[in-house]
Specification:
alpha/beta, Aspartate Aminotransferase, domain 1, Aspartate Aminotransferase, domain 2, 2 domains, three-stranded antiparallel β-sheet, 13 helices, 12% strand, binds pyridoxal-5'-phosphate
Length: 424
């Protein structure tokens, strides 16, 4: 039985009071102006899609542009952040963010590219063990990626990609159903690849339980952390996943197309039997420029790198990670639980006709609440154009609201819930 809760104070003043008591870190960010409504700033609840720009990012980017203007080719080696090893100082903060060892982590490329590079190593169909297990409501890019990997191995994606769906009448996958599938069919499964926080429903999976079941069944287990990194505390090393990948432009606020991150568990580092695609950044730096070289990959996740880093997509990652390092994921999660819980209670009170499909248990979700509503895209337009509330709609009938805990406010939540109450 849920605890009986106090009736919520739905007044604007109560929202303002909570903001005074728990102000967050909004001052570090550019908050866009409201396109409409009674307040100057947008109530930005789409940080799960594109995070806001940290004010410090511009200066970081300009410093890299200045290095190019002033040093040109020498900037590969000189200055306070030379380009050749540019990814190196990002490794430790990225590792802290996902609960990995530094050797297990590298910032590179973009998310789907990295999923492919990791599947080259970790999707190895053989004999009867060919299947890839994903969620029925996996993010589209992940679906396309796994289907193309299956075809790359000469297999039929319709037979080989298994899409696990929630039980009839339910919105989210139960961990016990995933585990049960792995107990029953696990000897046919080559790879389990789930979104740690589902992009559509906001469900946070039981990463340790699913990972343990997948590995016990002899499958490799990878996690897409796109909606989890910077949203919920993670311990990828201890949870024993084989690999993970995430993007940096959602909760991490590193800007559109920013360089992404990968995790490869220690047990795979230095394993020369794993196939990998290589380039000059896959080898020990000392051998990078050799003539007719044979690669000597380092026993770290850097062995999965291929190309030299895209500096202007990496600088904003540095700014982002330094914010997370300063504040810490556990403090951020604490604030996130408060904000999302507040939004949930307001929605229940003010817009009760719109069902929330995200799990009600705060331990099973991050900062996002998903509402199931016909015409979600029109509703998102009306929230923006009438109230300055920025939400987003996803096919076929989901409206997502994500109070990202770095910069969203209790007042933003109040604006969204009162606007939805008006519109429904
Ligand atoms: C956002 C997101 C992506 C986006 O992929 P890119 O390669 O960065 O374009 C992929 N998968 C998931 C689960 C996502 O949430």
């Amino acid at each position: 039985m849920p605890e009986p809760t106090e009736p919520i104070d739905t007044s604007e003043q109560a929202a303002r009071q909570q903001d005074a008591a728990d102000p967050g870190h909004r001052e570090l960010f550019h908050v866009p102006p409201a396109p409409a409504g009674a307040y100057p700033e947008a109530a930005y609840l789409a940080g799960n899609s594109l995070g806001l720009q940290p004010k410090a990012t511009r200066g970081e980017l300009l410093a890299d542009l200045d290095a190019w203007a002033e040093q040109a080719v020498a900037a590969h080696l000189v200055g306070n952040r030379p380009w050749l090893p540019y990814h190196e100082p990002l490794t430790e903060p990225a590792a802290r963010l996902v609960g990995a060892l530094p050797a297990e982590t590298v910032v590179m490329n973009s998310l789907t590219v990295n999923l492919h590079l990791l599947m080259v190593s970790f999707y190895r169909p053989a004999g009867d063990r060919t299947r890839i297990l994903i969620e029925n409501h996996a993010f589209p890019s992940d679906s396309y990626a796994v289907r193309s990997q299956v075809r790359f191995h000469g297999l039929d994606p319709d037979q080989t990609v298994v899409r696990l769906a929630p039980r009839p009448g339910e919105h989210t996958l139960r961990a016990e159903d995933v585990v049960d599938y792995l107990h029953r069919e696990g000897d046919r499964v080559a790879l389990v690849l789930l979104g740690a926080v589902n992009y559509l429903t906001g469900e946070l999976h039981d990463i340790p339980a699913v990972t343990a079941a997948g590995r016990a069944a002899g499958a490799t287990v990878g996690w897409d952390l796109a909606h989890a990194a910077g949203n919920v505390p993670l311990r990828m090393h201890d949870w024993d996943a084989d690999f993970a990948a995430w993007c940096s432009y959602k909760y991490l606020n590193a800007g559109p197309g920013a360089a992404a991150g990968v995790f490869v568990h220690q047990r795979h580092l230095g394993d020369s039997s794993l196939p990998r695609f290589e380039g000059w950044w896959s080898t020990e730096p000392a051998t990078r420029f050799e003539m007719a070289p044979v690669s000597r990959p380092p026993a770290t996740a850097e062995a999965w790198q291929i190309s030299n880093p895209p500096i202007f997509s990496m600088g904003p990652v540095r700014t982002s990670l330094s914010i997370f390092d300063k504040i810490g994921m556990s403090a951020l999660r604490e604030r996130s639980l408060q904000l999302t819980g507040y939004l949930e209670r307001l929605l229940d009170a003010l817009a009760p006709a719109v069902p929330i499909v995200t799990p009600r248990d705060p331990a099973r979700r991050g900062a996002q609440l998903s509402l199931r509503v016909a015409g979600a895209d029109r509703l998102a337009d009306r929230l923006r154009d009438g109230y300055g509330v920025i939400a987003d709609a996803r096919e076929p009938d989901i409206l997502r609201l994500a109070p990202a805990p770095l910069y969203a406010t209790y007042h933003d939540c109040w604006r969204a819930a009162t606007a939805l109450g008006d519109l429904r």
